[in-house]
């Protein structure tokens, strides 16, 4: 596929859809599996549900590293692809894969050593903390596969191939979604069965992406110089991601201090939010690839046209998800647990969840534009500002004033709105559209 040029609106929309729709399935597959896992475990009782909430929040650190790898690799590969050098684009994937293997091994080791103290810090209930630690030690074994898949997604998106990732990720997660209830109930493994199913999906997916990279017949030797450049470029994404992780970990910690029912409802709401956010991020994936390729080809006009179009598509998609969420307010919590106390807490979360989605559609689309442009320094600064000046003060004040989940989710809404303002200001300016194969 050639880099984008000045095209009519219909052609551009079809190009965005051709990249976004397969990416949507890839992005939604992992959180959809987590939702299935949450529903399966939720019927074991409050303690297992709270354990998955805490353990899953810790595992989101690995997902965060994976997102950094995928996004950083997409931007670099897309610019090189746009400049007409596909070989160099694939080479970015090779070095990202070495980085994924090293990071994955380190995170597995840390999970085995520190699962108990970390889960005890996050969960007020001792039984939930112990169950979370057991789940985490097993689930962490899937981290190398998760990161290999992220690196693979990154370079494939950069060369505008979103179909193979669709087959790899969807197949592995469907297998795991079938395996999870079988291991939890008929096999009698309970909570640990869900962790094993998680490891199977992530390891299989990572293996498929590694196989695809080997088939490219690119040199597979590690290049420390390229890896260092990727790390330097990813520094701002790392800091930005750290701000997100501080927010999610703090939100779970505060919710846990309002009781087991509250943290269970928060887990349901947060996983649904992650699912919707990652689904909306499909438009951002298209933006990363198309904006990066356009700027790599020296076409600022096409890059700006992509930015305008994906912003509009993101807004429409956000409204659509909000309408679906509002319609499911009285039904969806029951999919995850029959506990009435959790349902009552979920009713507090739901209006915030629905109200945030239209704004989130625009936020995630513009995130993709700036990541594709390599303008991650600005993303770092504005995310830190939104976290430190909005989200974190709001939720810890909610804890101090005993405002419950309403206070926690007010903080999430404030975080989203502050980011929206910063992104709109940048989008209307000229400093993000830097031309060339590298930035």
Description:
- The chain has one domain.
- The protein contains 14 helices and no strands.
- Helix 13 packs antiparallel against helix 14.
- The longest helix has 37 residues.
- The N terminus is likely disordered.
- Pfam families: MatE.
- Keywords: Cell membrane, Membrane, Transmembrane, Transmembrane helix, Transport.
- This is MATE family efflux transporter.
List keywords for this structure.
0% strand; 84% helix; MATE_fam; DinF-like; disordered N terminus; mainly alpha; transmembrane; 439 residues; MATE family efflux transporter
Note the total helix count: 14
Question: End-to-end distance, in Å?
Answer: 22 Å
What would you report as the Rg, rounded to the nearest angstrom?
21 Å
Specify the biggest β-sheet. Answer: none
Count of beta strands: 0
What structural class do you assign from the helix and strand content? mainly alpha
Helix content: over 70%
Number of domains: 1
Q: Approximately what portion of the residues adopt beta-strand conformation?
A: under 5%
**Overall pLDDT, averaged?**
86
Shape: globular
SSE string, helices as H and strands as E: HHHHHHHHHHHHHH
Which regions have little confidence, pLDDT < 50, spanning 5+ residues?
A: 1-6
């Amino acid at each position: 596929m050639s880099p984008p040029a000045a095209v009519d609106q219909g052609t551009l929309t079809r190009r965005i859809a051709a990249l976004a729709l397969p990416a949507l399935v890839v992005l939604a597959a992992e959180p959809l599996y987590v939702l299935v896992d949450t529903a399966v475990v939720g019927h074991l009782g409050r303690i297992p549900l709270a354990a998955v909430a805490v353990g899953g929040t810790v595992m989101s650190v690995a997902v965060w590293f994976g997102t950094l790898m995928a996004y950083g690799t997409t931007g670099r590969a897309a610019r090189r692809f746009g400049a007409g050098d596909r070989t160099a684009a694939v080479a970015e994937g090779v070095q990202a894969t070495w980085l994924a293997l090293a990071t994955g091994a380190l995170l597995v080791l840390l999970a085995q050593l520190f699962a108990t103290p970390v889960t005890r810090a996050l969960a007020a209930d001792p039984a939930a903390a112990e169950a979370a630690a057991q789940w985490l030690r097993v689930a962490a074994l899937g981290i190398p596969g998760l990161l290999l898949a992220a690196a693979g997604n990154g370079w494939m998106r950069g060369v505008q191939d979103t179909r193979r990732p669709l087959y790899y990720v969807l197949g592995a997660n469907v297998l795991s979604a079938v395996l999870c209830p079988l291991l939890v109930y008929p096999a009698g493994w309970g909570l640990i069965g869900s962790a094993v199913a998680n490891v199977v999906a992530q390891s299989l997916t990572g293996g498929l992406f590694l196989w695809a990279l080997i088939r490219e017949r690119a040199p597979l030797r590690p290049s420390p110089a390229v890896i260092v450049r990727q790390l330097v470029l990813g520094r701002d994404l790392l800091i930005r991601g750290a701000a997100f992780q501080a927010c999610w970990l703090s939100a779970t910690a505060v919710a846990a201090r309002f009781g087991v029912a509250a943290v269970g409802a928060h887990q349901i709401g947060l996983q649904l939010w992650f699912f919707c956010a990652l689904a909306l991020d499909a438009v951002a994936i298209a933006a990363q690839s198309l904006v990066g390729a356009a700027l790599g080809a020296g076409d600022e006009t096409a890059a700006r046209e992509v930015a305008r179009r994906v912003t509009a598509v993101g807004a429409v998609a956000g409204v659509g998800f909000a309408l679906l969420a509002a319609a499911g307010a009285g039904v969806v919590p029951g999919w995850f647990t029959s506990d009435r106390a959790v349902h009552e807490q979920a009713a507090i979360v739901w209006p915030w969840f629905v109200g945030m989605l239209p704004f989130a559609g625009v936020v995630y689309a513009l995130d993709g534009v700036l990541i594709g442009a390599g303008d991650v320094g600005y993303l770092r600064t504005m995310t830190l500002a939104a976290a430190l000046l909005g989200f974190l003060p709001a939720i810890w004040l909610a804890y101090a004033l005993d405002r419950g989940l309403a206070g926690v989710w007010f903080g999430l809404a404030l975080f989203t709105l502050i980011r929206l303002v910063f992104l709109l200001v940048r989008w209307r300016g000229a400093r993000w559209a830097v031309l060339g194969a590298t930035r």
